[in-house]
Task: structure prediction
Amino acid sequence: QVQLVESGGGLVQPGGSLRLSCAASGFTFSTYAMSWYRQAPGKERELVASISWSGSIRDYASSVKGRFIISRDNAKATVYLQMDSLKPEDTALYYCKARRGNEYWGQGTQVTVSS
Result:
């Protein structure tokens, strides 16, 4: 059974940091590209960051470039999103996605940036 389980979300003040994790099981994680998406209330889901199966290629939305870092540990079947200098507009439900032709999605973890 395929599972993607996000964790690490929470409430943080502006300027703070969070590290999201997405633990995968039920498929060959090391052969899948991984991405983080987010969806804020009333808005469409948007791509935040992506990483290739090997980790050698990483892409970021312009809104998070220089503040967020995506990484992966294929031995642990986990992808991470380090989020620094958080802003209120980063508040959203954050999802991870695995892609290799077909796609798998997690259930999401809530990130709230507020003072």
Summary: The radius of gyration is 13 Å. The chain has a mean pLDDT of 97. The first strand starts at residue 3 and ends at 7. The CA atoms of residues 51 and 58 lie 4 Å apart.
